[in-house]
What does this fold into?
Amino acid sequence: MNIIKTGIEGLVEIIPTIYKDDRGWFFELFREDHFRNHGINPKFIQDNQSFSKKGVVRGLHLQLDPYAQGKLVSVISGKVLDVVVDLRKGSSTFGKVHYCTLDSERRNLLFVPEGFAHGFSALEDSIFFYKCTNTHHPGAEIGIRWNDPDLAIDWTVKEPLLSAKDKNHPTLNELLIKSVISRN
Ligand SMILES: Cc1cn([C@H]2C[C@H](O)[C@@H](COP(=O)(O)OP(=O)(O)O[C@H]3O[C@@H](C)C(=O)[C@@H](O)[C@H]3O)O2)c(=O)[nH]c1=O
It folds into this structure.
């Protein structure tokens, strides 16, 4: 397992070692001790799976404190473009967007710390799997508009299929003005 730093503190990509033999293959999806060696100590308490048809965009989502969720995200089948935005109060990379393609050949994973908005676009029909450090609290959930002009995220899909909820989120700037999110 190779844990690679991104340009954003605490956000790491994990490249597992895949052991192949005549029966098939094996890999370690999560190792607490390996994460700890990199100064990351997530305590996962919920696992989720979703299936998305090619062209679906889910996001951008986050839960506010005290229900913030760190997420270890991956795909079981298919390929997605995973997108995160650092919205941690006081972060030197506040507002920075990070892209990571997750695919079921490399079986790479992204660990997204608490305080990031998260979303993905399905580049193929994909089963998405993620571990969370907090349980689902709908009352603490907020969303940011997928096509926020300031974030200008390139989801690489032409006409995304979105949930009704995801079509109507405010922009990051609107959330900053209302102090739902603060930079400092
Ligand atoms: C996220 C979630 C949803 N649900 C229910 C609520 C709803 O009826 C149905 C679908 O929910 P959503 O439309 O919010 O699902 P989805 O759009 O897949 O939401 C997810 O998107 C990605 C990008 C994330 O980062 C996740 O944290 C989560 O917000 O599932 C749960 O029961 N538990 C959960 O943990």
User: Anything to note?
Assistant: Residues 120 and 164 are 16 Å apart (CA to CA). Residues 2-177 form a domain with the Jelly Rolls fold (CATH 2.60.120.10).
